[in-house]
Write a structure and sequence with these properties.
Elements (H helix, E strand, L loop, with lengths): L1 H15 L8 H15 L7 H8 L8 H26 L4 H23 L21 H20 L10 H10 L9 H27 L3 H20 L4
Length: 239
């Protein structure tokens, strides 16, 4: 009994411990790769497509609705994940493991729904321009929520230069850096690596979907990487 109490106490202390964030950006780089992979699957819109749809200029039927769903889900996800980190502790091992576990589950659920045929697996170019695939609203919600978890984690860890989901702001910060051409500039280097990995992820995802004609393999791959990140946080060095 004492041994069990000691084990549970040790586990509780481990989960409550704050991780050493000095090299945590390496795990965030994996999130950038995942973002690239995600961008090659289910369509994720933005404010541009919302505006075009509202003015009837978006050729994709109801594309504005899908874009609005993506934005709304991202906003909701940002709020929820921020609350999770605020309540459990921004850099605690337990909060990071739970955050990434939820993200992994969201991707896994999406992959399962696609694999099981519950939602359409058609890529954008194959979607009917007459009947919009409303079932794709579900994966858009799930994937947007998990994307929000990534960027909240990057903020919680103090790596604002690696948003993990938005390369436009990353590139703006990179080009605006007054120390851009210095030999040693850690933030610049991290931004470049994050950008490259996002592009690499998109290329890999594009080739996989082209070769298989399906998006589920990319989703399973992304979920697998995310689960590895959960384990990585579990063994990450504490302060």
């Amino acid at each position: 009994m004492d041994h069990e109490k000691g084990t549970l106490g040790g586990l509780s202390m481990s989960l409550k411990a704050e991780i050493e964030s000095q090299y945590a950006h390496h795990l965030l780089f994996a999130c950038c790769l995942i973002s690239g992979l995600m961008d090659s699957t289910i369509y994720r819109g933005n404010t541009i497509f919302v505006g075009l749809g509202a003015s009837s200029q978006n050729p994709q039927p109801y594309g504005w609705a899908r874009s609005l769903t993506s934005i709304g889900s991202f906003i909701l996800g940002s709020f929820l994940f921020a609350q999770l980190h605020r309540v459990l502790g921004a850099r605690r091992r337990g909060s990071l493991m739970l955050s990434f576990l939820v993200q992994a589950c969201l991707i896994t659920l999406t992959a399962g729904l696609v694999e099981g045929g519950a939602i359409s697996s058609a890529l954008d170019g194959k979607i009917s321009r007459v009947i919009p695939p409303w079932d794709q609203e579900v994966p858009i919600v799930l994937l947007s929520l998990q994307s929000a978890g990534q960027i909240v984690a990057s903020r919680s860890l103090g790596f604002n230069e690696i948003p993990t989901v938005v390369i436009t702001s990353l590139l703006c910060d990179l080009m605006s850096d007054p120390k851009l051409f210095l030999l040693r500039n850690d933030k610049r280097d991290r931004r470049i690596i994050a950008f490259v990995l996002t592009i690499v992820g998109a290329i890999i995802g594009g080739w996989v979907t082209k070769a298989t004609g399906a998006i589920s393999p990319v989703l399973w791959l992304s979920a697998g990487i995310k689960m590895l990140l959960v384990l990585a946080w579990g063994f990450w060095k504490a302060k």
